[in-house]
Design a protein that fits this description.
heterodimer; A: mainly alpha; 6 domains; two-stranded antiparallel ribbon; 32 helices; 41% helix; flat; B: alpha+beta; Immunoglobulin-like; Cytochrome Bc1 Complex, Chain D, domain 2; four-stranded antiparallel sheet; elongated
């Protein structure tokens, strides 16, 4: 060994000339390393590939002219971005490269932003300054932000856009789920605009729960909420039989009866299924409540709880009292106070109690609770944070019960504990945690939700948008969401509107739900007499709509109270309802309007004026519009419908004043039953409407 | 030098990633063989890039009499980025295999292949096409649902009653590629912006130029191109396995 080395040394450095030669070669090789490294760099390889690809294209000359070799960089000091992605993604801005399927050469898909203004990593994450695929896309060298998988892409929009965007359905859904499924009851989420996300669900108070249901039902519900109602938003806490027994014992023992609730109610539900079905339908209960049908589909609204097995849950006396006036049991409920008479209450409660599932409680047998069990139940209620969502007498709502999630989208990977086999990336961690929270460590309290894979993806998207960057971006880039006001109508009418829970469906002055039309300007829009009749018997305005205004059985004085208030308080400053007459338009003008209606503007495509010829099904039926709307409102609507109802699908036709006047005259002449020729036809649209509702 | 080496090593990795094969679970042993593989449902769906298709893909294996075959092996394959759950399975008692499909991260059309070994060792293949929508097409889809679908889509759903049958002049459904593919983007832009009469078409098509922005209308056009059947030239690239 030693000899070989010695002879090698002799051969290489035996004399000075040889030594000089060898050293020169080594020197030359070593100084060639740097240029070679550069020459063989990845980005150069991709740029060469790009040049080869464009050579065969018909627009090769243009593309060649646009091409700039070398490392490319977008530097945006305000946003803290240095992105060199365009060194390899060469064709991002080449309009003709949309058909290229090989990456990294494809044109960037169309987005509402300029690539030079926001560069790449603001949306895609990744390490912008890197010039190799591995370092730019993946998290090497402890870089915390690997490339964001495409399915979570919309989270990046949410860094600046606080409100709903038409182009980001996944983000919108994720945010809605965060508030709807009560995540924000336990987890605080502060957004970069300083606001705190508020829950949109309304978990019931448990202070009087014993009035409403049995301990057995509570037990079954705690064990598996989705077994009672597939659409239940209450998660499964995976309680042991003993824990469920003790919590149900505590909740019943802790419940106090409510004065005037069940007392004095003669609960005699009538059993007339036909009458019940019909009253349930007439009252439009299904606008808010769903029922699971035989095919397993959940049909109906999701504003109130699902009623598939309601008969196995509630006590008959409680249901009677609730239907008579829900506000006695729960003053803040979103359920309207229908003015049902005793017969109607009996019919409806009989119908609802029939919706029972004998299997639900068949195997639940609970012995009388011991004080130890009740005490243990109380501890469990505190431990699991039940009071974060529900009001429970004697238990304070815990503060910051679960970790704050305001910046969860930037949580360092070093702080995460991954499950075996899980990709070490933040999105995978978040999705895994939502899917199976208890698997991450023994003793975790986060309950099991029944989310679909698509829901988990959208929740993850919404959570990833809550990151450090969203707090660090210049405030000029922030796009606020729609603000929710705490508007409350005043006086007697205001009390009445709360009692009828108008805001559960309607929005007024920035407060309320979007299910039914915004009423902020209803006073400018409709005629008083029509409104009175509508309250008495809400007809159908839009034949194709399924969810509708119920009849609340109001008294005449209640109706007049409400009508006066609406006509006075809800006026649009730009529409003076007295500026145009309700009738008396010249025959010539009416005739011109008719021509415009059927000709130039072809309104019959969406609306019905003459039930014999018109079939339009999209907009409201206009057979009675002359006795429903004010002329000033119609005129302004013709000129610019979006100025009156932002987002309405009625197209803005940029009408001249003359056309708008003529159409107003024509529409104001449509007073329904007044003309003898229309009397016979008036019943027709209603008949068809009920057909639609059944479909 | 290290970079160069890494690059050399990386190349085969890159190429192998491009010709990504979905491996079947080795434990699956078919107990029967079919003569044909057919689509039951789930082809031609839309999903956003990288997302799950709204409905699973269901394929069925039949024998030469057209009867369902139970216990035949069905394997799914697709270009890189597409995932299946499961990627391979045996047909159930009704001869079907159901898989949920998640599309790749690039907008465009994805060709997915379901295959089953036939009796004479011949592989039977079924090709389906699914569409991954980019931002613009997603926006177009939403705008379509809000503004266009009620008239242009003849199908009614529980939540949306179609107005198609009520119109004297029938609008073109957006799947009608034979007609719509002949119209240029500029024609579509003009009709949507200025209404039917501006292009000598029915006044039942109103002008949307004062209601929708130009970028909204372009998004709609990109959606119309995507929905077109047969596919439009402008539908974006097609990703297939080779």
């Amino acid at each position: 060994m030693k000899e070989t080395l010695t002879s090698l040394w002799q051969k290489l450095f035996g004399d000075s000339v040889r030594a000089f030669g060898v050293v020169s070669v080594i020197f030359l090789v070593s100084i060639a390393i740097a240029p070679a490294k550069n020459f063989f760099s990845e980005w150069r390889h991709y740029q060469q590939g790009y040049l080869r690809m464009i050579r065969n294209r018909s627009d090769a000359n243009t593309l060649q002219r646009h091409f700039q070799g070398g490392i490319q960089q977008v530097w945006l000091p305000d946003l803290g971005v240095v992105d060199r992605c365009t060194s390899c993604h060469v064709g991002l801005k080449e309009a003709s490269l949309t058909d290229v399927a090989t990456q990294p050469y494809r044109k960037h898909p169309v987005i509402p932003h300029n690539l030079d203004q926001f560069a790449c990593t603001i949306c895609h994450r990744g390490q912008g300054a890197a010039t190799t695929v591995a370092e730019a896309h993946n998290s090497t060298l402890a870089w915390e932000q690997p490339i964001l998988p495409a399915k979570y892409m919309e989270s990046s929009c949410g860094q600046c856009h606080r409100g709903q965007l038409a182009g980001t359905p996944v983000l919108n859904q994720g945010r809605a789920l965060l508030t709807r499924y009560g995540c924000v009851h336990c987890h605080t989420i502060k957004t970069s605009d300083g606001s705190v996300m508020k829950p949109t669900d309304d978990p019931p108070s448990l202070e009087h729960i014993a009035d409403k249901t049995s301990r057995e039902w509570i037990y079954a519900w705690l064990k598996d909420p989705q077994a009672y109602a597939a659409s239940a938003t209450m998660p499964n806490f995976k309680l042991s039989d003993d824990d469920a027994r003790d919590i149900s014992a505590f909740l019943i023992a802790n419940s106090t009866p409510i004065a005037g609730d069940n007392a004095g109610v003669s609960a005699k539900p009538s059993s007339d299924p036909a009458a019940g079905t019909s009253l349930y339908g007439e009252s439009f209960c299904a606008s808010c409540h769903a029922v699971q049908n035989a095919a397993g589909n959940i049909v109906g609204g999701d504003v109130g709880p699902e009623l598939t097995r309601i008969g196995s849950k509630v006590k008959p006396e409680w249901l009677h009292a609730w239907l008579r006036n829900p506000r006695v049991y729960d003053p803040g409920t979103g359920m309207p106070h229908y003015r049902f008479n005793d017969g109607q209450v009996a019919t409806l409660s009989g119908f609802l109690l029939g919706k029972a599932d004998s299997d639900l409680l068949a195997n639940v047998h609970l012995d009388t609770a011991t004080p130890e069990q009740i005490g243990h139940g109380k501890r469990l209620v505190s431990d699991y944070g039940c009071a974060s969502c529900h009001e429970i007498a004697g238990i304070k709502k815990p503060e910051n019960f679960a970790p704050e999630l305001s910046r969860i989208g930037s949580k360092p990977i070093t702080q995460l504990i991954f499950l075996p086999g899980m990709r070490h990336a933040l999105p995978d961690y978040i999705a895994g945690k939502i899917k199976n929270p208890r698997t991450f460590a023994p003793g975790l309290k986060m309950p099991q939700y029944a989310f679909t894979p698509a829901q988990i993806d959208s929740l993850t998207t919404a959570l990833l948008s809550l990151n450090e960057r969203s707090f660090g971006l210049p405030s000029s880039l922030m796009v606020p969401g729609r603000a929710e006001t705490d508007y409350q109508p005043a006086a007697k009418a205001g009390k009445l509107m709360t009692d009828l829970a108008c805001f559960s469906c309607h929005r007024i002055n920035g407060h309320g739900s979007d299910m039914a039309p915004d009423l902020s300007w209803e006073g400018s829009s409709v005629q008083r007499e029509w409104l009175v009749q509508f309250f008495k018997n809400p007809g159908t305005l839009r034949p194709a709509l399924i969810r509708r205004m119920p009849r609340f059985n109001l008294t005449d004085s209640e109706i007049s109270e409400l009508t006066d208030y609406i006509m006075t308080a809800y006026q649009n400053p730009a529409v003076d309802r007295d500026s145009m007459p309700l009738s008396g338009y010249s025959q010539g003008e009416v005739e011109l309007g008719k021509q415009l209606f059927y000709g130039k503007y072809s309104c019959q495509g969406c609306h019905i004026v003459d039930t014999k010829t018109d079939k339009g099904y999209i907009g409201p039926t206009l057979t009675h519009v002359g006795s429903r709307l004010t002329a000033a409102w119609i005129y302004q609507w013709m000129k610019n419908p979006q100025s009156l109802r932002p987002g309405t699908i009625e197209p803005n036709r940029a009408m001249s004043d003359e056309d708008a006047s003529a159409l107003t005259a024509f529409l104001m002449s449509q007073k329904g039953g007044e003309k003898s020729t229309r009397v016979a036809q008036a019943a027709k649209p209603a008949g068809r409407a009920s057909e639609v509702a059944k479909r | 030098m290290k970079t160069y080496l890494a690059f050399l090593l990386g190349l085969p990795l890159l190429t192998s990633a491009c010709s990504h094969e979905t491996k079947s679970a080795p434990t699956l042993k078919p107990t029967a063989f079919g003569a044909a593989i057919v689509e039951s449902s789930g082809g031609k769906q839309f999903a956003q890039t990288g997302s799950l298709l709204p409905q699973p893909v269901v394929v069925q294996v039949n024998d030469d009499q057209g009867n369902a075959v139970t216990g035949a092996l069905v394997e799914f394959a697709a270009p890189a980025g597409v995932t299946f759950d499961p990627a391979a399975a045996l047909t159930d008692s009704s001869g079907q295999v159901t898989t949920s499909v998640s599309l790749g991260g690039m907008a465009g059309r994805y060709q997915i292949t379901a295959s089953t070994p036939g009796k004479s060792n011949k592989r039977l293949e079924l090709k389906l096409e699914e569409l991954a929508l980019g931002y613009q097409q997603t926006l177009g889809l939403r705008l379509n649902e809000q503004y266009c679908d009620r008239c242009h889509n003849p199908e009614s759903t529980v939540e949306r009653v179609s107005n198609y049958d009520n119109l004297e002049v029938k609008p073109h459904p957006f799947t009608e590629g034979d007609t719509l593919n002949k119209m240029s983007d500029a024609d579509l832009l003009a009709i949507i912006t200025n209404g039917g009469p501006a292009q000598q078409k029915s006044a039942l098509m109103p002008a949307w130029g004062n209601t929708l922005s130009k970028s909204d209308i372009q998004a709609l056009i990109s959606y119309i191109r995507a929905a077109s059947d047969p596919p439009s030239r402008n539908a974006g690239p097609m990703y297939s396995r080779n």
